Amino acid sequence: MRLILLIVVVLPLVVERVTADRILSRRTRRELASPLHVGGIRDPHGSYCQRRGGCCPGRDDLCTVPYLDTICYCDLFCNRTVSDCCPDFWGHCLGVPPPLIDACERNGNRFFTGQTYKENCNLCTCGPSGRWDCEQNPCLVEPTIIHAVNRGNYGWKAANYSQFYGMTLAEGIRYRLGTQRPSSTIMNMNEIRVRTVLNDHLPRYFNSTEKWPGKIHEPLDQGNCAASWAFSTAAVASDRISIQSMGHMTPQLSPQNLISCDTRNQDGCAGGRVDGAWWFLRRRGVVTEDCYPYTPPHQTPAEVARCMMQSRSVGRGKRQATQHCPNTHNYRNDIYQSTPPYRLSSNEKEIMKEIMDNGPVQAIMEVHEDFFVYRSGIYKHTDVSFAKPPQYRKHGTHSVRIIGWGEDRDFNGTPRKFWIAANSWGKNWGENGYFRIARGDNECEIEAFVIGVWGRITMEDMHNHHHHRRRHI
Ligand SMILES: *[C@@H]1O[C@H](CO)[C@@H](O)[C@H](O)[C@H]1NC(C)=O
Ligand SMILES: *[C@@H]1O[C@H](CO)[C@@H](O)[C@H](O)[C@H]1NC(C)=O
Ligand SMILES: *[C@@H]1O[C@H](CO)[C@@H](O)[C@H](O)[C@H]1NC(C)=O
């Protein structure tokens, strides 16, 4: 009897003690726990306090709800500097928007840790301390460079191009150019000497498009494919064949044919050499753009497209296609070939003479960071990026087609000589796809390696093509 009484008296005491211990330890745990919302509120729209059925006044360590891999609280005490409130505590219990807990802000919107946005060419990530952490790549379109060029008296104007916006400078150099410097043996190749030009009359202005209307091809767009080696070669060969055949044939030769089929020591959309391209045009030949259309790479810019056109010899060095055009609308798969190319001297007058007599030439040039934003005027590489860190100054080798020249005066009346050249960045770039660049100073090394070529055209060809054309009309 006495024993039972004792138990009855002691038991509640023990139970009370245990509860107090548990609460104390839980409190300590709660207070020591790492804050719940480091790096932003996860599952910010989840329903927790609401699902629990309400909120608790003051401090109530039992007022919890499971939250992801832990628990969250719905008591007023949770709303401290170190918060362990459920995501919907503020909205559901206080009726106020949740505070910014280590979240990043941008244009009035809230982003959580790990979320990203792209600022021009740089990815910005919301960091754990609530601050944006942005990559620091130089971009292909740098607004500060555009402004500096347009404010200065550089003789040319710059513009933002949507097709370049968002790319890094390194990507521009990697995907928009694509001509490897000729090997030293080629570089040392003897220049052919065009007749002494001292006595020849060279006009102050010359434009192939005006001298040979309908025979000079419009600039194409290589897209994100570093194959200027194929584009400039095909363009010069197209113009030369058209001029030489006196308009009997005006093929726009296919850069894709070169990119996909001239693969020996060439890297397609990852760059190539013009000497290799000319070798291919001479020995294998290519079809027209209409027959073998250009398909710029979508996913990985360096992807290789299978060669869809072969040719075989039909004697006397001439070739014939052995496959149909890789398209459904055009059946004319004539193969066009060239003679061996010849290198001109770096003398400005000799280059001019060659263009005037025989048509556009191919030139290799160094492209610097400011060239991408060229809009109009006479380009010269500027010093506008010299105030920036060295990674903002980059250059790569490109090839273009020079079609003429001219001269104008700058703002103080000093004459400025220029070349008229065609690029392969589409017609919305520069002056309708063309650009003018300083002449006579080897600007960007444009006069250092210039190539001319002849199409391989016989009277028979001219006759055949003439007939074909007539039949089509
Ligand atoms: C809860 O936190 C919000 C935001 O920090 C603050 O404005 C509010 O006064 C706090 N409420 C309570 C009851 O502590
Ligand atoms: C440049 O063009 C892009 C895309 O067209 C645009 O989003 C960006 O704001 C422009 N930047 C400047 C500096 O004009
Ligand atoms: C070259 O001639 C074409 C055709 O007349 C013309 O559209 C173009 O503006 C000329 N280029 C220059 C730089 O004068």
From TrEMBL:
Matching PROSITE patterns: SMB_1 (PS00524), SMB_2 (PS50958), THIOL_PROTEASE_ASN (PS00640), THIOL_PROTEASE_HIS (PS00639)
Listed SMART domains: Pept_C1
Domain named SMB: residues: 51-99
CDD domains: Peptidase_C1A_CathepsinB
UniProt feature, compositional bias: Polar residues: 322-339
Matching Pfam families: Peptidase_C1
Entry's localization field: Secreted
Primary location: secreted
One of the record's GO cellular component terms: extracellular region
Keyword terms: Disulfide bond, Glycoprotein, Secreted, Signal
GO molecular function terms noted in the UniProt entry: cysteine-type peptidase activity; peptidase inhibitor activity
Signal peptide coordinates: 1-20
Family: Belongs to the peptidase C1 family.
Protein name: Tubulointerstitial nephritis antigen like 1
Native organism: Nothobranchius furzeri (Turquoise killifish)
